[in-house]
Amino acid sequence: MKKIEFSNSSIKIVLIFVLVLLFLIPLNLIRNLIYDRQDYQREAISSITRPLGGDAEIQGIVIAVPYKSYIENFDSNGNKHVETEIRYIIFAPDSYDLDISVNPYYLTRGIFKVPVFNGQIKLKADFSKFDFSYFNISPKDIMQNDCFLILGLSNSKNLMTQPKLNMDGKDLFISPIKYDSVSPFETSVYYNLSGVDFSGKINLYGAIDFQGGENIKIQPIASDNHINMVSSWPSPSFSGGWLPKERVLSKDGFSASWNIAGLSTVYPKSWQSEDDFNGETVDVSFIVPVDSYKKTNRSVKYALLFLAIPFIALLICEVFSKIRVHPIQYCLIGFADVIFYLLLLSISEHISFDLTYAICSICVCAATLLYASAILKKIKWGALLSAVQMISYIFLYGTLQAEDYALLIGSVGLFIVVILLMFITRKIDWYEINQKNGEPL
């Protein structure tokens, strides 16, 4: 039976492949460390925004009108009894106008800076067409003197002062009674509306001083909704159920406006309090443009590829220089590349990601230059290996910047690397190398 023999160069290639796989262990530890730092960041953000009420959400404003509902019951003897129950009809505004000014600023917790804000909402709402006939309610059963207005919020901590509302020239007073079972909102402020005339149009005006952290959400609830927002924040993010009809962004801030028809929302003109709705919101986020954790995590995803490239380059330098490189020396160069990602994570918490990336790549490439020049006996081999590593880092940086085209850039780049390796090694006789050198690689 013929004995199968393996060349020493083949063994070295297999060894490099094994080393690359082994380096997945520290890379996975770095990835877990990124997740831990992200959790720590989220805890810091929560500890700052929680006392401010978190996201500031204005869920709407409605009028609740009670009426008497009669329920017929029969006892065991067949006698009919009529019981009276108080129920409520909820009326949404015909028009709903909000002028919002937002003053953002930073609060810090440890090394983390969190965007928070305060501001004011100038509110205008018009109510009309209080039609009870749709619900088969007799006018004599309407309890007009007991109706109330509901201002909906996500959290009462978002209020900096008591909201001041005025209806038809009269200031409204907060009701001492809470009607949480009636309100369609998470948290509500209730105002007495005794003696309101439902035969005409009702005009409501008000001002709400609010605070919060990171996000503002507005729920359009009327038949016709107009929202205007201005702020000094230069990098907002618009999302939610509707995008701005108009927006102006500059380094000094932004302005945006929405016109939302009631037909595009889930809210009807009026409904019974037992009905439940879950409407969409207009979302504006005050984001930090660069998230270093996100970019570091994406860079680690490409780490295996950019770890294999220096190993292959070192193997080629070893072949052409005819100097043996020990596996431990491969490991040291690999560890330098792994530490690049750890440095990227730790330093980017304190300075910008772009500056961090430049510092880390230059330091690692300089270390590779000095070390490879020493083990390969000539500076040209160290310069070659360092240049390959620097090109890899530049390519990785471009991939991180082009998030939408990362897959395309990565696949094309990998193809180019393979073509270059094929071109450089096209004349190498891997079987003849061991015979010429007389000793294993």
Number of strands: 16
Quickly count the helices: 9
Order of helices and strands: HHEEEEEEEEEEEEEEEEHHHHHHH
Biggest sheet architecture: 8 strands, mixed
Identify low-pLDDT runs: 1-7, 437-441
Oligomer: single chain
- The shape, in one word, is elongated
Strand content: 25-35%
- The whole-number mean of residue pLDDT values reads 84
Q: Give Rg in angstroms.
A: 34 Å
Instruction: Kindly state the percentage of residues in helix.
Output: 25-40%
Measured between the Cα atoms of the first and last residue, the distance is 28 Å
Structure description:
The protein is elongated, with a radius of gyration of 34 Å. With 441 residues, the chain is of the alpha+beta class. A hairpin with a 5-residue loop joins strand 1 (56-74) and strand 2. Helix content is 37%, strand content 30%. The protein contains 9 helices and 16 strands. Mean pLDDT is 84; it is low at 1-7 and 437-441.
